[in-house]
Amino acid sequence: MDRRTFNNRACVAMLKTDFHDHFLFRVELDELITLATNAGYEVVEEIIQTRHPTSDLLFGKGKVEEIREFMKFQDIDNLIVYNQLSSKQFLNLARELEANVMDRYDLTLEIFEANASDILSLQQIKLAKMKKETPLLKLKVSEKYKEEHPFLMGGGEYAMHSTLKSFSKRESSIKREIDRMLREKKMQVIRRKKEGAKIVNIGGYYNSGKTTLFNKLTGADKPVSETPFTTLTAKYKKWLENGNVLFVDTIGFVIDLDPRLLTSFEINLIDFQYADLQLFLVSANEPPEIVALKLSEGLKILETIPVQGQKTIVVLNKIDETDEENLEQILDVTRTVFDSGDENRIIPISAKTGKNLDKLSKHISEKIFLQTSKINSPY
Ligand SMILES: Nc1nc2c(ncn2[C@@H]2O[C@H](COP(=O)(O)OP(=O)(O)OP(=O)(O)O)[C@@H](O)[C@H]2O)c(=O)[nH]1
Ligand SMILES: [Mg+2]
Q1: Going by DSSP bridges, is the β-strand pair 311-317/245-249 parallel, antiparallel, or unpaired?
Q2: Core-most of 187, 211, 259, 325, by most CB within 10 Å?
Q3: Which option is the CATH number for 9-111: 3.40.50.300, 3.30.300.130, 3.40.50.2000, 3.40.50.11060?
Q4: Burial, 19: exposed, middle or buried (Cβ in 10 Å; 0-12, 13-18, 19+)?
Q5: Where does ligand 1 bind, in terms of residues with CB under 6 Å?
Q6: What is the pLDDT of residues 59-107, one digit of tens each?
Q7: Which residues surround the ion ligand 2 when the cut-off is CB under 5 Å?
């Protein structure tokens, strides 16, 4: 479709395939709305259809017609879809609606792009976008080919093919550059570890206060904000209490994390893989069922990263914004979800006020140095 300018009014839409889901979809859709709003969209309407997906449009044909009418009438230019769209679905929806269509992955990349400042993040975003565009281009080429010249290729198709070729060339050169940076980063981390440094990774949901905690523990002054994905690039800094320990502040997780994000941002996994200890942050100023969901999903993601059996401490942050009763319930659900058999691996804190940071520090020390002495000890 032509590249006209779009306004910032948006519909968010979800195809709900689980007929019995009365809770999760709401959390997921709310998170999508938060992300969209933070990306600068004015979310005007949400549309949910419960059915099996269609291969052409994801939603049913009638529903798409309804969405089209609504968007036209309300002067809405953007459709943000929760579900992952295939190239075919994306192209068909964009044509049917004559609108800017994106899925959650595109939206996340858009936010990443707005926040990225370093070369590596920008290269990773560029590559992720190219990977996404290649199948679309291919689809367009094959459609045009079938439609116009069943036997011969016309000039337009040659142009498309040459675009594809130069696209894949650029893709490979960016990939090589990223690989080089990846190797460099790995070597740097390995060198630090050889020199005796212990690494503590601060992971968890976006906006859970990872950077606030990192700043408190290391004396750093990294930017902190309510905007999702404020932190895209990890930073290593010495612990104020013990210079042999390095903390890493990493990129945030989202619920139902798109696996493509994990592979595209491979460099971020290094911080998890080489850490001696994982701190996993979840905001405790939310209802217990949300905390439970975020925690179980987050721990599942951690399991997909081939970390080398390090210990995890679950840090329930922002307790200055929760009352005692809510915190008790949160502790209960956390114990159920994170059944480590060790009470000291669940620590409620406030990174902002500093509450319980001494307790957290004590357990960090114990966990890192105890682990090491066990490994070194012949007994
Ligand atoms: N009330 C309260 N707010 C906090 C606390 N810790 C962090 N915040 C606030 O939560 C927001 C997000 O904090 P960040 O430290 O940027 O969170 P993050 O996890 O690094 O976020 P991303 O980098 O976007 O993934 C900011 O507005 C902080 O001021 C806390 O203990 N209590
Ligand atoms: Mg951050």
Answers
A1: unpaired
A2: 211
A3: 3.40.50.11060
A4: exposed
A5: 206-212, 224-226, 228-231, 252, 317-318, 320-321, 350-352
A6: 999 999 999 999 999 999 999 999 999 999 999 999 999 999 999 999 9
A7: 210-211, 230-231
